[in-house]
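Closing statement on the LBFN2T5F sub-project.
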Amino acid sequence: MRLRFSKMHGLGNDFVMIDAISQKVRLSPEKVRKLADRRFGVGCDQVLIVEEPSNPDVDFRYRIYNADGSEVENCGNGARCFATFVRERKLTGKSSIKVETSAGIMELHVTNNDDVRVDMGAPILTPDQIPFIAPAQAPCYPITLGSETFTISAVSMGNPHGVLLVDSAANAEVERLGPLLEVHSSFPNKANIGFMEVLSRSEINLRVFERGAGETLACGTGACAAVVAGRLRDLLDSSVTVNLPGGSLIIEWAGGASSVVMTGPTAQVFQGQVKI
Ligand SMILES: N[C@@H](CCC[C@H](N)C(=O)O)C(=O)O
């Protein structure tokens, strides 16, 4: 099977984007892993597949696969790249696009300077819906790893996130703690783990160890989850610049049941064909 694809990224969180509307695509987890492999394949953090929607009220459906082959619910940087991709491929001329994912319907808007603004929906904080094991909802929870206890916030942006507060994101123990907390028994579906340094009420530094992909240069849903966690702990205001290793996003959240809104750039690196 030969597949046409675009290699894209949002702040260095990189994607193989595949149009499954104009070509037939069937990907097993093994094929996803092969595409994502940085030596034997194209190389990416996530593979994104654009499909016809099942719901007539939306424009597209898109599916998200982590580099390890697992299918996941949501991807913030991927959503922005998806909007640029469908416009560049002339699959739509719209600047406001509705898309369904397994986390629900999202609305994306391409701004005048070609950034993409995404309504990411309201965060989910109820432990059993994240899912996170806890007796009751709280802004943060104790979590134990051997003899160490950490304080973690648990937030779902359609996908599960744990957020730790650190003194310095640059010096955070992402390589050691990320893989251990990703598979901690408190997160039954595993989790993306964010390490957040609060610089002021409107700016944070953040690194994210992503479920199924390892540390990435940016994680859009991770940025949303960190701002929600910071707001729940009364550390942040409603509009926050999130500095990630690959660049910055603006995240806005008024609180409660209102949507989290993410704004940031996208880039296409190259297009190609791959035999898979
Ligand atoms: N890079 C993404 C998140 C991709 C999915 C995540 N690794 C998961 O397993 O939930 C983003 O920008 O949000």
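The radius of gyration is 18 Å. With this model delivered, the sub-project is considered complete and its resources will be redirected to Aim 3.
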